[in-house]
Recover the amino acids of this structure.
């Protein structure tokens, strides 16, 4: 499984949804699992993004489809980054 960082910004509609139903975040996590994307860690943050999610997926196409599917709803904008652990990075660079 590959690791990805998903940086999320809520739209106005998304912020309203979370305000009314904060548990919606866990519901989306379950939807992601149905798309073969596992949420490993999730943080609410201040700054340019609202959430930082560390996820695993079998490949880039899978995480891309999940990102597009969620973004198409109009409640969130997602930037996704491929990530390597430091051990993987060192092995790759050697």
């Amino acid at each position: 499984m590959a690791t990805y960082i998903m940086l999320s910004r809520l739209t106005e509609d998304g912020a309203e949804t979370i305000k009314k139903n904060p548990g919606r975040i866990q519901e989306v996590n379950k939807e992601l699992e149905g798309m073969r994307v596992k949420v490993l860690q999730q943080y609410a943050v201040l700054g340019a993004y609202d959430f930082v999610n560390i996820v695993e997926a079998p490949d880039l196409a899978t995480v891309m489809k999940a990102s597009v599917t969620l973004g198409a709803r109009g409640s969130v904008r997602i930037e996704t980054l491929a990530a390597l652990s430091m051990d993987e990075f060192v092995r790759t660079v050697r």
